[in-house]
Design goal:
The chain has 60 residues and is mostly helical. Helix content is 83%, strand content 0%. The protein has one domain.
Length: 60
């Protein structure tokens, strides 16, 4: 799960960065940025955080 969370987070960051070279339309860039933010937040809050909470230090 940690690997997929990290992968989704990095892809969510790379999507808007790559969108800068793909198009010059501001609407498409905005949509790509919003999708990238959603992917990044899903990766961090949805996959990485629960994976680290499973092995939390205070639960041992």
């Amino acid at each position: 799960m940690k690997f997929f969370g990290l992968l989704l987070t990095v892809c969510g960051w790379l999507l808007p960065v790559a969108g800068l070279t793909w198009t010059s339309s501001l609407t498409v860039r905005l949509i790509l940025c919003l999708i990238g933010i959603a992917m990044t937040l899903t990766g961090i809050l949805g996959l990485l955080n629960p994976a680290y909470l499973k092995d939390a230090v205070w639960k041992k």
